Amino acid sequence: MATYTFNLPDIGEGIAEAEIVAWHVKVGDRIEEDGRIADMMTDKATVEMESPVSGVIRKVAGAEGDVIAIGSMLVEIETEGEDAPAIGSAPEPEPEVIEAETPKAPPVEVPVLAPAPVQAPAAPKAASAPTAVEADASAKVLASPVVRQRARDLGIDLAKVRPAEGNRIRHADLDAYLNYGGTRAGPGRPADEEIRVIGMRKRIAQNMAESKRHIPHFTYVEEIDVTKMEEMRAEMNESRGNRPKLTALPILIAAICKTLRDYPMLNARYDDEANVVTRFGAVHLGIATQTDAGLMVPVLRGAESLSVWDMASEIARLADAARSGKAKSEELSGSTLTLTSLGPLGGIATTPVINRPEVAIIGPNKIVERPVVVNGAIGIAKMMNLSISCDHRVVDGYDAASFVQALKRRIETPIYIFAD
User: Fold this and answer.
1) 3-class SS at 375?
2) Catalytic residue at 24?
3) Claim: this prediction has a pTM higher than 0.90
4) What is the CATH number of the domain that holds 172?
5) Which of 28, 40, 105, 319 falls 20 to 30 Å from 235 in CA-CA distance?
6) Of 153, 396, 399, 420, which one is the catalytic site residue?
7) Catalytic annotation on 392?
8) Set 34, 153, 392, 399: catalytic member
9) d(Cα 7, Cα 37) in Å, to the nearest integer?
């Protein structure tokens, strides 16, 4: 027998450590080559660690929620043959480990709230046997033996699974198929449970607490008549051809980008330690997106230079990547201003929390038809309330109100959204 030490590899430029958000093995488990070891989170992105060898798990580094350094031991695997050298070098001090011979209990398994892949319950093998045609199609798909066996156990036809990268199907692709393309198991009987706050939910909690602790928020709300904008959007969709269908969001973003030219103090970041405000020329707009794991903010880069059609395509792509847990780290960082919307849930008004270190966040609410008075007569208009929260250390109330009034004029006369 030999011992193979698998150290946490470099999983991103400039990343020094990562959080364990899910273990797929425990001490004493048998793991095959390409088998899933753990899911590690760094900078909001979750990376799946797979075993380069087959063997038995003898040590694991910490419990879910623990943070370990790049190069540190993640697991030790007992293999057949001579001792294999560890990959990388573990820094001092070494992380606390759980060994097979120790009397300590192994880490408690808890529900995972991060956008890491979720192990679905295995379906009975008898019910999952593929037909001859399915087996032939699946055989042509690139996948490791471990992935193929898991697909058979779950009754998944590999020919129907789309790999996220390249043409080789991995465990994460099976998870994505189960969660978004296949059938979920029904919910069990409700019961009390304690859930450790880890992964994405932990990051959200920390970021929101830091934002409210450091930033003196104020919120301004205005109502906007979007009747003409909605009429224009309907006309654009009728003649869109092969282009994506427009929602109100890309048109609102175009209006925001055009208005920001005169209000650069809102498209900015505040380094409160160095007392430096950086105003940005480009608008890298964060789009708050609800996922199963919580709120994520993928970034629409260079929004001011995109057409509304390009925005629609990119927003859809980013939202899909965020919700499937496949968004890259660079797609979830670097925003200069954030837009958050509850969509059809709407509400009368919101008081959104600023995405620190930005200095403002904009929250459009749902569009509703309601009676309005126009030139002394009552009519029906499509109205939308719009909220903006600002960092009062950087943005004065007058400037925030002036920005919203300028944005309102542009939206209510939508030709000015596209005219210079």
Assistant:
1) coil
2) no
3) no
4) 4.10.320
5) 319
6) 396
7) yes
8) 392
9) 12
